[in-house]
Amino acid sequence: MVVKLKDIPVQYANALRRICLAGIPTFAVDDVVIIENSSVLPDEGVAHRLAMVPLRTDLSRFVEPSACDCHSELGCSRCRVLLVLDSGSSDTTRTITSAEISSEDEVVKPVSPNIPIVALAPSQKLKVEAYARLGRGNDHAKWNSATIAILTATNNPNEHILTIETTGSLTPKEVLRASIDELEKRLDEFQKNLATLG
């Protein structure tokens, strides 16, 4: 998505760009319980690959764990989603993809069914439970809300071009709207902090 920003100081436009990139919460796998893994990929490799699978995100129904009333490490239905992958066994070599991940939520699921996770030889199995939580790209790249956020200058010093591309967790329009709200929230908070200083 390409947006023309008019009459916005460059520092605010750049702040908006940075928030688009890593300041909006998205879902990503954060905890993995390996029930069975007879593949050649170690448990840590499986967990890492699951964490990097982009998940569709619904910001209207879920909250970040730090803002949830449950205050639980395990989370609750407001701050986490359970995903299950059970490959079963097969007589042939096959590649397990994100299509085999089932979610307890109809919205929070992989953005694409074609993301490879692990190759299994005959009789090898993979069974995992994964817990996805909202997080921000400032903490880890798996939570980046956009893959590209570029601010380009134009011949007019009062105009800037903002280009946004996402992983599919959120649409570019959702990222932009949420970024504007987040920037406004941060500026209000900054103003309140300045007022307390005197």
From TrEMBL:
**EC number assigned by the record:** 2.7.7.6
Give the encoding gene's name.
Answer: rpo3
Reaction(s) catalysed by this chain, per the record, are: RNA(n) + a ribonucleoside 5'-triphosphate = RNA(n+1) + diphosphate
Subunit: Part of the RNA polymerase complex.
Q: Where in the cell is it found?
A: Cytoplasm
Please give one Gene Ontology molecular function term for this protein: protein dimerization activity
Keyword Transcription listed: yes
**Keywords in alphabetical order:** Cytoplasm, DNA-directed RNA polymerase, Nucleotidyltransferase, Transcription, Transferase
Q: Which enzyme class? A: transferase
Q: Which organism is it from?
A: Nitrosotalea sinensis
What this chain does, per the entry, is described as: DNA-dependent RNA polymerase (RNAP) catalyzes the transcription of DNA into RNA using the four ribonucleoside triphosphates as substrates.
NCBIfam families, per this entry?
Answer: PRK00783.1
Q: Name one Pfam family in it.
A: RNA_pol_L
Query: Domain DNA-directed RNA polymerase RpoA/D/Rpb3-type, which positions?
Result: 1-193
- Looking at the keywords, is Transcription present? yes
Q: Which GO terms describe its cellular component?
A: cytoplasm; DNA-directed RNA polymerase complex
Q: What is this protein called?
A: DNA-directed RNA polymerase subunit Rpo3
Provide a GO biological process annotation: DNA-templated transcription
Record-stated family: Belongs to the archaeal Rpo3/eukaryotic RPB3 RNA polymerase subunit family.
